[in-house]
Amino acid sequence: GESVGLHLPTLSVQEGDNSIINCAYSNSASDYFIWYKQESGKGPQFIIDIRSNMDKRQGQRVTVLLNKTVKHLSLQIAATQPGDSAVYFCAENSKFTNTGNQFYFGTGTSLTVIP
Amino acid sequence: NAGVTQTPKFRILKIGQSMTLQCAQDMNHNYMYWYRQDPGMGLKLIYYSVGAGITDKGEVPNGYNVSRSTTEDFPLRLELAAPSQTSVYFCASSWPAAGHTIYFGEGSWLTVV
Q1: Residue ranges of chain B with pLDDT lower than 50?
Q2: Which residues have C-beta within 8 Å of that of residue A88, sequence separation ≥ 6?
Q3: Residue among A43, A46, A91 minimizing CB distance to B106
Q4: What does the mean pLDDT of chain B come to?
Q5: For residues B105 and B33, what is the distance between their CA atoms, to the nearest angstrom?
């Protein structure tokens, strides 16, 4: 089956520092990846996505890097703020699945920002 | 912007009871999904639908049923609730093609005692 996992279950960073959250995937056919942020008691919220024809994509204070060679994805958050404290999930899917637009989610990394 | 709306937000069920979690989306998405999230775990797909009248099983369908009579609504039915179904349930929707973002509701917290 599919496997999407994270290297670290928890991450603590000082306010103002940069955060890096990692994710590994196992399906080499995966061609679309998303990072979600989930605050306590809420549903996952879209942060940024990247397609397999790209290595890097930048948003507002966030950057996603994709290394297809080692099947690794990372989310970088610049100048981390207390409001960034949440669980971050990566998700991946493949246009070659025959089961609809199915995504596979990692367990998540809990990011805690220390004021 | 309503997006994906789930009800109820919280519910306590007794073992053996049944209930329906309601989900509605106003984005005209063809694809809809139900996920469950256990504490400290990722999201597991229960059922999904690629359009009105079409549903299919995900990774963990046992103990659940769904229907999709309209594009907007995708209710999840729990029959004979068991403690193992204590979880947070998320409904989601997306455009009908791979490579499109899934949008989630706020979640329904269900406890079976």
Answers
A1: none
A2: A21, A35, A36, A37, A38, A47, A75, A108, A109, A111
A3: A43
A4: 92
A5: 10
Q: Which residues pair with A45 in a beta bridge?
A: A37
Contact (Cβ atoms closer than 8 angstroms) between residue B11 and residue B112: no
With bands split at pLDDT 50, 70 and 90, how would you rate the model's confidence at A1? very low
In this complex, how many residue pairs, one in chain A and one in chain B, have their CB atoms less than 8 Å apart? Answer: 63
Which residue in the block uniquely carries the two structure tokens 């879209």?
A46
Residue A15 has pLDDT above 60, yes or no: yes
**β-strands A19-25, B76-78 pairing:** unpaired
Instruction: Show the tokens assigned to B7.
Output: 């009800």
Residues with Cβ within 8 Å of residue B91, at least 6 apart in sequence: B4, B6, B21, B23, B25, B32, B33, B34, B35, B74, B76, B104, B105, B108
Confirm if B57 and B44 have CB atoms less than 8 A apart: no
Q: What confidence category does residue A27 fall into, taking pLDDT thresholds of 50, 70 and 90?
A: confident
Determine the pLDDT at residue B96: 67
Q: Is A107 on the interface with B (CB under 8 A)?
A: yes
Whether B31 and chain A come into contact, CB under 8 Å, resolves to: yes
